[in-house]
Amino acid sequence: MRVDFTKMHGLGNDFVVLDARARELPAIDQDIARALADRRTGIGCDQLIVLEPSDTADFRMRIFNHDGGEVGACGNASRAVALLHGSPADVETAGGTIRVEPANDGASVDMGEPRFDWDAIPLAYGMDTAAMPVGWDGLDQPGAVNVGNPHVIFFVPDTDAVPLETLGPEIENDALFPERVNVNVATIESRTHIRLRVWERGAGLTRACGTGACATAVHAMRRGLVEREVRVTLPGGDLTIGWGEDNRITMTGPATESYRGSFDWSDFA
Ligand SMILES: N[C@@H](CCC[C@H](N)C(=O)O)C(=O)O
C-alpha cells in the first residue's frame, strides 16, 4: 500500500504528517512510528503526526515521538497541522482538545489550561510544583507544568552554558517523573522576553518545542517574573505565548510545509 505524507516544520522542529481522515491507514504502532522517524533509514523527523477522524472534534491528531512513544501534545505540530488544514478547527489530542487557527504563515493555537498539581504532571510524590526542592548538577529548584504533556523548567543565567546533551536524558529518565519529562532551561531576559532550550522526551535536543515554550512561559508568569504575554526565543526562532484571564494558554508562531512524498507501508511494517 502506498501512503502519502507531508513533511512540515515549526521553527525547525520537524514532522512527518500522515492524513488518515479520508483514507484509513493500517494501525500505527510504536515500531512503525520509530522506523518512519529514523533519519538514516526512514523519512526522518522529530515527531510523526497522524490525523484521523474524531467523534468529539473536527479531527484527531495523534503524536508519536522520534523514539516511537505516543504522547499527548505537540505545540509546533499543532501550528503545522493548522496550516495543512487551512481553516480554524477543534482538534482532539490525547492531552485534550485544542483550537487551531491558521494566521500569517503560521497559526495561533488555544492550547487549553495548564495543570500544576504534582499528580497531574505527574511526579512520583507530592511537592510544590512552583519551586521543587530537587536538583541535578547545578540545576536547582525547577518548576513543573503539564500542558497536555509533562515539563520541568529550570531558570538559568545562560541557557547555552547548560550541558543539556548529558543532563537532559538524566533528568528525563529520573524516577521522580514516572512518565518521563521534557526538560526546559530558560533565561528571563526581560518581563516580556524569555530565552529557552529544550531537551524533549523521546526526541532529544530539538530546534524548538512549542509546549516547552508554553510551559516555561506559564511557570515564569506563575512566579511573577514576566507579563502575561511574552516572546519566547528558541534556537529555531520566536513564539508568542499568552496566558489569559480565562486560564487558557495561547501560542502564536510560524509553520511551514517543505515537501510531499509517498512510501510503501510494507517497507516499514
Ligand atoms: N515538539 C513538541 C513536543 C513533542 C512531544 C514531547 N517530546 C513529549 O514527549 O511530550 C512541541 O512542539 O511541543
TrEMBL record:
The gene is dapF. InterPro entries: DAP_epimerase_AS, DAP_epimerase_DapF. Keywords: Amino-acid biosynthesis, Cytoplasm, Isomerase, Lysine biosynthesis. Gene3D superfamilies: Diaminopimelate Epimerase, Chain A, domain 1 (3.10.310.10). This is Diaminopimelate epimerase. Its EC number is 5.1.1.7. The active site is at residues 74, 209. It comes from Qipengyuania mesophila. Homodimer. The keyword Isomerase applies. GO terms for molecular function: diaminopimelate epimerase activity. Substrate binds at residues 13, 47, 65, 75-76, 149, 182, 200-201, 210-211. It catalyses: (2S,6S)-2,6-diaminopimelate = meso-2,6-diaminopimelate. Its main location: cytoplasm. Belongs to the diaminopimelate epimerase family. Pfam families: DAP_epimerase (PF01678). The keyword Membrane does not apply.
